[in-house]
Structure prediction request, 661 residues.
Amino acid sequence: MKRILLSAALLAAASLSLHAQKTMKAPAGGKQISDELIGIFFEDISMAADGGLYAELVQNGSFEYSPAERDGWGPGTAWRFLRPGHSLGYMQPRMDNPLHVNNPTYMRLHIERVKEYYDYNGWKGVGLQNDGFDGIVVKTGAHYDFSCFARNVDADAKQVRIALVEPGGRGRQTKLLAEAVLDVKAPSWEKYTAVLSPQEGSQHAVLQVLVLTQGELDLDQISLMPQDTYKGHGLRKDLAQALADLNPKFMRFPGGCVVHGGGDGFWDTYRWKTTIGPKEQRQSLKNTWGYHQSMGLGYYEYFQLCEDIGMEPLPILPCGVSCQGTNGGWGMRGQAQDVVPMSAMDEWAQDALDLIEWANGDPATSKWARLRAEQGHPAPFGLKYLGLGNEERISPEFAERFRYIYNKVREAHPEIVIVGTAGPGSHPGNGDFQNGWKLAEELEVPILDEHYYEPRDYFLKSRQYDAYPRDRKTKVYLGEYAAKDKKLIDALAEALYLLHVERNGDVVCMTSYAPLFARKGTNNWNPNLIYFDNERPFLTCSYYVQQMFGLSSGQYYYGDCVKIQDATDLQEQSVVLNVKTRQLFVKLCNASADAKTATLDLSRFGSPKKTAVKTVLTGQPDQENNFDQQPIAPQTETLKPSKRMTQPMPPYSFTMLTFTL
Prediction:
């Protein structure tokens, strides 16, 4: 048997399945389940957007960090003042006559003298240096698009040197990697561009903007973007590819607690309308996790990513009710939840209606659709799902406001599938959970979003969806969940739980692990699915479990095709048929230290093709992947299938067999 990598085998099999000849008829004995079970949930937490998925290399390019935010105008702003040689001058942040009302802060440079000193090897000027996000990684021969808005304050045209450099220090000279010179003449704001192509790569480059002419110059919206981004749409290629390799069916965004202003009140609530259009016109914001969002990754980019990967977009909108964590109010029932007056709720309902128009409307007849077309996407995005609220406490005030928006959207757009919220801590014994389900059943909400993070023992033992009523009109979306560690045993606990979810795929229609991303050194939460630094992601054990489930979706579940010898609660199995791709998936999880054997009877599905693919994720239970080492990854091999066969279930393993019918 030939051993091959997961990406080369299972991903290829998934690709080939797209060319299946025709849909097959499901054999008797199967239960119809959702084929959209595995999706992803993106929230800008732990710097997942700026410095992460969004490929922008300049931090705080619009100068909007403020003293009200975590870092203020200190070292964390990523800018520093430069005057190499004997140049003299100073910088001054200003807000009068800005580039745009949503982008009010800019930087004025006062250049009093420009002079080269012999020790500086030709470096001179007055300007700024941006260190990016812990340095800027540039590659030899790659191309980077620089842009900025500039305004010449006085009469003399300004010469501005743009340089990518590797700083010196400890006996090393500053190394020039790439440069360009701009001539700024316009007395009003104008955009200037250049392409920088380093002749040598660096892991610790910085960007310098130096004015070489005496006088005054205004700068704003400084940007450095790699030309090589995911499908050319401005997202970091390796991180976006890691998402695509999960084969997710949908993406929930932009949060999470980011949606409703978790800690500071309504002023930092995420409002989608301020995140579309030209980047220089978007309104940046401190988010609930305590750092700045540029909104360079906004609603347009979210929808574009969904289209690029083939995911259904699932945007989440606030309902005019704050997170119960506002002002330190976690657990304070009825004391900390702020609400928008009902007299002002039309604005919040209109945001939902306008979003549907923006995503699905005709540019010829819709103002919002016209804005979408102007940004580069004249065709509708095809929005199907819309989420209202994110784990707010199901108070009477929340219920009133949710009901108001829900009814408005249902009346105007009955085709949209609305996803509600079951509140925080979505367990049957939780009072908010009970109130959330009561409200959902009263309004016949199509899908209800449940969230819970638990120790691994919960996922090893709980099978809560087995007991859910089968006659409810409301389906479950498990929108946030994870075992509270990232060892292999935690991933196997999640695999066991997902096999039980798959068995209940008639009740649970969607799931998404959370959180998705965390930048090295900036964790707001632990664990996360994907960790990354400036150069690479590392994929957790849980990532590979999610990937194996994402690649094995189907429409029918069969519960009587596999028998596990001496099975305990630490073993689960699932057989799923995808009639569209004519693929059959057998998944076997063993979270114990004892080897087991599974007996398969697949005779009802006819004769499989000559080759099947076997994928196994296994190792020691306490092993985990990290930046230093990644010992856990799926191993894939080909095998000759038969209608009846036995399969070993090694200790601490998750096995998937992929048959083509």
User: Anything to note?
Assistant: The CA atoms of residues 300 and 376 lie 9 Å apart. The radius of gyration is 27 Å. Residues 396-412 form the longest helix (17 residues). Confidence is low (pLDDT under 50) at residues 1-5, 71-76, 328-335.
